[in-house]
Amino acid sequence: MKVEIRLFGLLRERAGSSSVELELAEGAVVADALRALARSGPLADAIARVSVAMAVNREYAGPDTVLQAEDELALIPPLSGGAR
User: Fold this and answer.
1) pLDDT in tens for each of the 84 residues of the chain?
2) Distance of CA 25 to CAs 28, 50, 67, Å?
3) First to last CA, the chain
């Protein structure tokens, strides 16, 4: 299933885009999307070291929130960058 990942702040800068699309397995949760982003690409380092607030379809979500096809997952880092 496809999920749109909306990026803000440092993550948007690293990706060079305000959003990316991920292909995830049916039944995937937010944590699965974060792991997929952390495996490769320009967001790998940032995802591993920055804490983010997460929202699915504009409602705050946790790592165990189940994603559906065509959902929008927003990743919002702290304004200061939020290094762990």
Assistant:
1) 999 999 999 999 999 999 999 999 999 999 999 999 999 788 988 888 888 999 999 999 999 999 999 999 999 998 754 455
2) 6, 25, 10
3) 31
Beta pairing class for 72-76 and 2-7: parallel
Assess contact for 34 and 28: CB atoms under 8 A: no
Burial (Cβ within 10 Å: 0-12, 13-18, ≥19) of residue 8: middle
Q: Measured between alpha carbons, how far is 6 from 8 in angstroms, rounded to an integer?
A: 7
Residue 25 to residue 17: CA distance in whole angstroms: 24
Cα 52–chain centre separation: 8
The Cα–Cα gap between 11 and 19 comes to 9
Place of tokens 């880092």: 77
Report the residue count for the chain.
84
